[in-house]
């Protein structure tokens, strides 16, 4: 059964290609980093979010170790914090305002179902879901806002449209900007 102590001692695993390490109920989940289209979208999304959040108190990070409990953590693609984690290895959900995932073919269920459920259960106000398909020249951005027991749609757009939101900070862009042309 994996926990934060084992992770700090043994991860990353030697002689294994770079991967995301997440843990659900003591089970270590390794996901390979996705092809360039997801990597490009993730980088662009972080860049656009940092520009938008520049005049706000929010801090935009890429992957962090978001800790729910010692045997349960995830590594979101984008994380917006309401204050600095001050060098912490494990980020407390109380610091998190938004979690963003670029949905990967290898982890579609975790990115679209499991991770939003975990984040909603601890009260993270926003979840951002991004999908890109370079071959089809498709991109979508969906911002979900916590309401009731889960997330509800708040703002969305497809490539060629304008994604606009005022929460958690004003942001406006065409999801096509996330495609690597």
From TrEMBL:
Single GO molecular function: endonuclease activity
Alphabetical list of InterPro entries matching this protein: Nuclease_put_TT1808, Restrct_endonuc-II-like, Uma2
Domain Putative restriction endonuclease, chain residue ranges per copy: 8-165
Pfam families in the record: Uma2
Key words, A-Z: Endonuclease, Hydrolase, Nuclease
Domain of life: Bacteria
Protein name according to UniProt: Uma2 family endonuclease
Natural source organism: Crossiella cryophila
């Amino acid at each position: 059964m994996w926990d934060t102590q084992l992770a700090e001692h043994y991860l990353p695993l030697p002689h294994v290609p770079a991967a995301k390490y997440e843990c659900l109920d003591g089970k270590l989940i390794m996901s390979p980093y996705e092809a360039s289209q997801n990597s490009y979208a993730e980088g662009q999304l972080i860049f656009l979010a940092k520009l938008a959040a520049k005049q706000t108190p929010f801090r935009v990070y890429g992957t962090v170790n978001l800790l729910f409990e010692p045997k349960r953590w995830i590594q979101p693609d984008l994380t917006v914090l309401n204050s600095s984690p001050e060098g912490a290895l494990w980020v407390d959900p109380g610091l998190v305002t938004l979690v963003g995932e670029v949905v990967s073919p290898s982890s579609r269920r975790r990115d679209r179902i499991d991770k939003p459920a975990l984040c909603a259960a601890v009260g993270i106000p926003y979840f951002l879901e991004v999908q890109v398909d370079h071959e089809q020249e498709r991109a979508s951005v969906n911002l979900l806002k916590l309401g009731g027991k889960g997330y509800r749609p708040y703002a969305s757009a497809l490539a060629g449209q304008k994604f606009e939101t005022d929460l958690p900070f004003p942001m406006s862009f065409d999801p096509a900007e996330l495609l690597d042309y």
